[in-house]
Amino acid sequence: MSDDKSPTSLFIFNDQSPEKKHYDFNFALPPPTAPSPQVQPMDVDTSGPIKLPEELSDAQIASEKKQKLNSGKVRRKIRKLTSIDESLSRKHESGWLCQLGGIRSIMVCSFVILVIAVLVGIFAKDDLRKDFYKMYRNHHQLLLYGVEDYCLQELDFSNVTKALKARVVGQQLAVDQISDFFNRHRDDPYSSLALSGPVGVGKSLTAELIGNNFQWRSNVHRFTWGIAITAEQQFSNFQSFLYSLRNGASTELNCGHNLLIIDNLEATDAGLVNKINNRLKFVSEKDNVQLTALFVFQGASAGDSSCLRGLNGNIEQVTLRSLTENDLEQCIRLEAKELGVDLGEDTRLVNIVMSSVDVHRYGCKGVRAKVSLYS
User: Fold this and answer.
1) DSSP letter at 345?
2) Which of the 8 DSSP states describes residue 341?
3) Model pTM greater than 0.70?
4) Which of 146, 166, 201, 282 is buried deepest, with most CB atoms within 10 A?
């Protein structure tokens, strides 16, 4: 190796020759220099000495947060976010409503088109329209009354006759006359019948049974006769009742046979009954409906019978006879059966009731109340 002042030399030893070989590169490495005293800009701190922040109180921190929140910039950001959320929610809601409205519109339009198509098909031909209406009406009557062709049936009074014979005591002849009247006037547009007789013989009961067992139950109409009012007021009330009957939405006067029951009449009302009868006949012909009027008079005495002779000849009359002691006993047993009282062979209750009822004056009136009282 050479001295420090001589050029740098490199000795390479060869494995085949132990002798040293000397190579001279003819240059020298620069001597090491000291670090430059120049200060770099990044190393300069012009901020002065470091100061630690003072500790802030909770009130000061809260005040600073409040000031930041109340700053205009923050509030604008909050309003912007709120408006975005509201617009998105309105957009979502409007989209949902529009979708629902579209579905409803499609359903309504489809239904309207279907109805129009059906109506056009039905009313295009008169025969097809009539067949459709008849079929619809038959199904309606079948569901409501359990009978097809409810309005077109022929009057059958057999059920009413059976009920009258089972419940009205001692009036077999009157029941036969009533049944004959309805069967004879089965096809007449208008007919009228007056029931008369003593007190308690079953006139009101007969009218009630006829109404409850009439073939067209929905066509039974009852008018309550007023008490202690003038004849003009009675007729005015009846006119109002008849008007409501003819113009009522729930009545079908053209369906089957109609029955009008007017009860609690006095023998002195015969003239007014004639006036009402003429009015009903006019309405029946004008409205083309079948109607039977049933006038029920209160217990008539011998003098009252002469008043009833003033009834219009078009009004047929059936008079129920007076009852006997045997009829009274039958009434007692029938009422006891209806009330569920088993008399059996014991006749004490029968004798007690019979002894307290004047059958010649009151017939069977009051028997039910006395059986309930003593049973």
Assistant:
1) T
2) -
3) no
4) 201
Evaluate whether 274 touches 312 at the Cβ level (below 8 Å): yes
Cα 351 to Cα 181: distance, rounded to the nearest angstrom: 38
* 3-class SS of residue 37: coil
CA dist list (Å): 245 to 8, 143, 217, 260, 287: 142, 24, 15, 11, 12
User: Lowest-pLDDT range, 96-100, 247-251, 270-274, 338-342?
Assistant: 96-100
Exposure letters 250-275 (e unless 16+ CB within 10 A, then b): eeebebbbbbbbbbebebebbebbbe
Q: Supply φ then ψ for residue 145, to 5 degrees.
A: -115, -10
Could you tell me if 25 and 8 are in contact, meaning their C-beta atoms sit under 8 angstroms apart? yes
Q: Who wins on pLDDT, 299 or 99? A: 299
Q: Which of 374, 324, 323, 335 is nearest to 351 (CA)?
A: 374
Task: Please list, in sequence order, all residues whose beta carbon lies within 8 angstroms of the beta carbon of residue 368, skipping any fewer than 6 positions away.
Answer: 335, 338, 339
Counting every residue, how long is the chain? 375
User: Looking at per-residue confidence, does 95 or 338 come out higher?
Assistant: 338
Those residues whose C-beta lies under 8 Å from the C-beta of residue 238, and which sit 6 or more positions away, are 223, 276, 279
CA distance 187 to 183: 9
Which residue, 313, 226, 311, 210, is CA-closest to 259? Answer: 210
Lookup: tokens for 9 = 């030399």
As a whole number of angstroms, the distance between CA 130 and CA 78 comes to: 72
Nearest Cα residue to 314 out of 342, 347, 266, 279: 279
Q: Which residues pair with 293 in a beta bridge?
A: 192, 260
DSSP characters over 106-138: HHHHHHHHHHHHHHHHHHTSHHHHHHHHHHHHH
For residue 324, the model assigns a pLDDT of: 94
| CA neighbor of 317 nearest in space, from 173, 200, 192, 160 | 192
